[in-house]
Design brief:
This protein is of the alpha+beta class. The protein has two domains: 52 residues; 101 residues, Immunoglobulin-like (Sandwich). It is 22% helix and 22% strand. It has one helix and eight strands, in the order αββββββββ. The strands form two sheets. Strands 1, 2, 4, 5 and 6 form a five-stranded antiparallel sheet that branches. A three-stranded antiparallel sheet has the order 3-7-8, with no helix packed on it. β5 and β6 form a beta hairpin. The radius of gyration is 40 Å and the shape is elongated.
Length: 176
Amino acid sequence: MTDNDVEKEAPTPNENASDDEAKKKKSFWATLPGIAGVFTAIGGLITVLVTIGVFSPPPEPTPTPVPLTELRVISTVPGLGATDVDPALEEIVITFSQPVMKGRYSFIIHPDLGEYPEVTGDPFFPGLQTCILPVKLEPGKTYAIGINSPDHKNFVSLADETLSAEPYILIFSTAP
């Protein structure tokens, strides 16, 4: 044998297996710092996203407050100017911009603008901002109903009964 020759013995099967296991163990532990770095980066990204609000629900829009110095009709059923309203409709619904005092109302007749519907019961208030007028409508007619007037101001604010609703005239037509 020369100085450059190295004599090696053939490994036994058990020695090969333990060398392979050692390499596997060594390679896993060698990658652990890399895995820890990935988890650290992901954690940092999640922290940043939570901080800037990516995972929080969008804020609810703030409704525009109606000043307590204003009380007005904000919607009606049927709607103002509606045509082809079903004559079988039995209730006219008025919704106000703020709570109104229950049991106080002024419905005004405007014969020059349309007919006043046949009223079938007393007006009632199912909620703080809604009044319902039970009616019987006829086909092919134009109706006009005033809600308060300069002389009749019984729809008033629940918070301040000296504040009456602005006058409003609901005009609509039924289908023939």
